[in-house]
Amino acid sequence: MILSRLLGSLALLAVALVLFVALRPLLPIDETRYLDVAWEMRLTGDLFHLTRNFELYTHKPPLLFWLINLVWQVTGVNEFAARLVAPGFAVASAVAMARLGRRLWPEDGATGARAVLVLAGFTVFLIYASATMFDTMLAFATILGMSLLWRIGEGAGGWRIWAGFGAVLALGVYAKGPVIFVHLMPVLLTMRFWAAAPPRVADAARGFGVAMGVGLALVALWLVPALVAGSAAYRQELLWTQSAARVAGGMAHDRPVWFLAALLPVILFPWCWSWRVWRGVAGEVKAGGPGRMLAIWAASGLVLFSLISGKQVHYLIPEFPAVALLMARALRVEGQGARGGSVAAILPVLIGIAALLFAAGVLPASGDLADLRPFWAVAVFGLLAIAIGIAGWRLPLVPGHAVIGIGLAAALHVLIATSGLYRAYDAGEIVARLQAAKAGGLAVAGMAYNAEFNFGARLDAPVAVLADADAIRSWSRAHPGGILFGPVARFPVEAAPEEQLRYNGLDYGFWPASAVTSPGSAPSG
């Protein structure tokens, strides 16, 4: 019975993630960029030095790109197959989380299955877990690390356990970098507050030394060759800018300290909207032991990322399993026979009503909402959202919240697939245009190019990024058969583009090099 529930919850999570990948295009700029890095790794055969638009790319470690290329060894170069790698780690994380739940509460074998259903019911988790990003891999490493820390806290502190912890640290570094320490170290350092048999300080220090030695040795297998063959600027970027400098601020995603805390009602929707769930969670934390460890895991991630200057919602993906386990344990009591009527059902109903008013023309369709057409697609979404809210209200607490969380995420993806949102972020037309013209050379100007189209067009040479009018003039003369492209509003060319295509909120123009260098159509500026 317990096994069937667990397998059912895992299947539900896997099917939802595969469906979401199929229903939306590759999203700029992250997903498009990461698939380009994997594509260029395949072209160059260099497993140590990542490139984006054929220039060194130090922003991320290599594991995701290695795995995508490993998948391509079986499937050939295929976008859909590549996009299943990160969601696959979301499912693997759910499996690891269920095993951790059985270890934390061996007397409650159903905790794992409940935790998987809770995890699958977080709308935000589903959205990010279906994306080609690094956080599900990091979550998997974090769960493995927590499992080992629990064993150490039970008194199993042999060198093999610590060596395994070092291997987990290395896995986290390969997945997303040194940020794995942010997720694991607070639980390690607070072991005396939650562990039944914490090791002595001296023993823990020796064990951690073993872990660091193993971790560094494993990371060195990639890092040393990469650094030796790289330039001084590459080493500076890889070792400092992409780690410590992000903490200090001044890079991307700088946000105020309250940003993540303010979004918690959305991040943890719908489960956190139930006071009965929180009442059970408070009881688990007060009881100490597993509940306290999970609370430290979840809360420390929130606090530390709030203090770090650069922050995004998806940085908290590795903390979702801790919250899911706490809530799953709480639901063993609070969820038994609990009736529906959750306040979380109000949100999809309100969203649905707003969508119907928009489809009826009561709310204006302008600005960022202009792509929400045809109106029948918006109306279908509105009806689905209302139905989800009503079902969630009428069902018992656990299935009701799962229906709300999973259903709302599914309805959003159906809206993307059936409305203009899909075409707005689908690079297919631009990719086809560039692919047909790549033999003569390609150049872009008027934008910060993040290799959005390199993978789709299967480019085997870089797109020249031109900074000013002189560079455009020089490149056009050197590539008379080439094509220039970029946002029409920002492109420094007087001549009208030969063609315009819209993508990601911008109107892209395409100019033959001969049109740029012809009389009367020279670059402006």
Structure characterization notes:
There is one protein chain. This protein is mainly alpha-helical and 525 residues long. Helices cover 62% and strands 5% of the residues. Strands 4-3-5-7-6 form a five-stranded mixed β-sheet, with helices on both faces. Strands 1-2 form a two-stranded antiparallel sheet. β1 (51-52) and β2 form a beta hairpin. The mean pLDDT is 90.
Layout of helices and strands, plus pairs?
Blueprint (H helix, E strand, L loop, with lengths): L1 H22 L6 H15 L6 E2 L2 E2 L6 H13 L3 H5 L1 H20 L6 H11 L1 H7 L5 H19 L5 H18 L3 H10 L11 H29 L2 H10 L2 H5 L10 H4 L1 H4 L7 H13 L2 H18 L12 H15 L11 H14 L15 H20 L2 H22 L1 H5 L3 H10 L4 E4 L18 E3 L2 H10 L4 E5 L11 E5 L2 E7 H5 L8
Parallel strand pairs: 3-4, 3-5
Antiparallel strand pairs: 1-2, 5-7, 6-7
What would you say about this model in short?
Helices cover 62% and strands 5% of the residues. It has helices spanning 2-23, 30-44, 63-75, 79-83, 85-104, 111-121, 123-129, 135-153, 159-176, 180-189, 201-229, 232-241, 244-248, 259-262, 264-267, 275-287, 290-307, 320-334, 346-359, 375-394, 397-418, 420-424, 428-437, 469-478, 513-517, and strands at 51-52, 55-56, 442-445, 464-466, 483-487, 499-503, 506-512.
* Structure classification: mainly alpha
The average pLDDT value, as a whole number, equals: 90
Seen as an oligomer or otherwise, the chain set is single chain
What's the gyration radius in Å? Answer: 25 Å
The helix fraction, in percent, is: 55-70%
Cα distance spanning the termini: 72 Å
| E-strand count | 7
* Shape summary: globular
Give the neighbour order of strands across the main sheet: 4-3-5-7-6
The helix count comes to 25
- Strand content bin: 5-15%
How is the main sheet built? 5 strands, mixed
Parts with pLDDT < 50 across at least 5 consecutive residues = none
